[in-house]
Hints:
Elements (H helix, E strand, L loop, with lengths): L6 H15 L5 H13 L3 H24 L6 H22 L3 H27 L7 H29 L2 H22 L19 H4 L2 H35 L8 H26 L1 H22 L4 H14 L4 H10 L6 H29 L5 H25 L10
Helix pairs in contact: 1-5, 1-6, 1-7, 2-3, 2-6, 2-9, 3-5, 3-14, 4-5, 4-7, 6-7, 6-10, 6-13, 9-10, 9-12, 9-13, 9-14, 9-15, 10-11, 10-12, 10-13, 11-12, 11-15, 14-15
Amino acid sequence: MFSRLSDKALILVMCGVQLLTMLSISIYAAQLPALRDFWGLNNAEAGWIGAAYFVGYTVLVPILTSLTDRIDPKRIYMVGAVLLFGGCTLFGMFATDLFTALLFHAMAGAGLAGTYMPGLKGLVDHVDDKLQSRATAFYTASFGFGAAFSYPFSDYLGQLFSWHYAFVGAGLAALISGFIVWIFLPPADPAKLNVATTRLLDFRPVFRNRAAMAYTLGYAIHCWELFGLRTWVVAYLVYAAQKHGTDPGLLGPSVIAAVLTIVGVPSSIYGNELAMKFGRRRTISFVMLASALVCFTIGLAAEYSYWLAAAFCILHGVTVIMDSAALTGGALGNAEPGYRGATMAVHSTLGFAGAILGPLVFGSVLDLGGGETSLSWWMGYAHMGVLLVLGSLMLRMLRPPSIMGDRL
């Protein structure tokens, strides 16, 4: 069952369902300070629960996204929506300790593996080639919108009822997204399926694609930074507020986290437009260096005031996401015919491997620095700055080309 839409309408619908599925991604981050204390976790253990979501994602994304070259992405999406519903609902109803939280959060992440990139594959397969870069930019930007609304969504339901309801609500949103995709996403063209000449999960043609891999490695570094930020930003701002005895009122940590994520949405779209105009490699390299500078500075802000820390977090929300759509568009635009799904699988797998390591390493660095101190927070953010400098150097060395639709 489907209703044929124009390209622009289909982009709008798929961005909308992306918002619904992404409500799950920051639920735990918004509840992290409370759950850490409630379950008696240290920072590393709390980081593991945050990372578990991306472990589940990374385990299944190479399989589910590669299958979109052979099976209708719409069917893959439906499986993902059900998994996401199950993981979030089980977390909300039955998570009682570190082990159960790890298990159910990983299941939710596995569900995202069936919705995020398969949803993008279903979208770009049905829009004009010249619209694919912008469709990718808007779709990946809606990732940010969903993550942004996830913070106040979680905070509101958590305060109104309890943290349990925040997770259950995110699960129901994922289920609704599945129904919308079932109605509006057209079925795949059979002529475009089973074009690949290699076996499923044979990624050698993708790894040999130097241009696509350069953007994918950059995406891995981007995700390391992005999810290191999103997992720990609420805890960082709570630390800053407590250190100075600040009552932020309506501009509390969860609201600031939502704001920094929202401002990243136009930043991602604008970053892709800059890449199309001034050159993809050049733009991404510059953005990485700018974000590295923020990372080297932001951890010091809590030493002075909550409001300075909040301002730097919002600035980080702009720089951290500005290269996201440009990196994904570069990888997809350089994919070999018949291997778009496989390229997306590798791109997403390596990217979210970075998303696993980002929160985990951040938490471990905090503990290494003595727990929650100004020095440890500076170390946590600074380690991401070092990676960004290395990422910029990597792009300059590999020199991947721009793609169709870029002016340079």
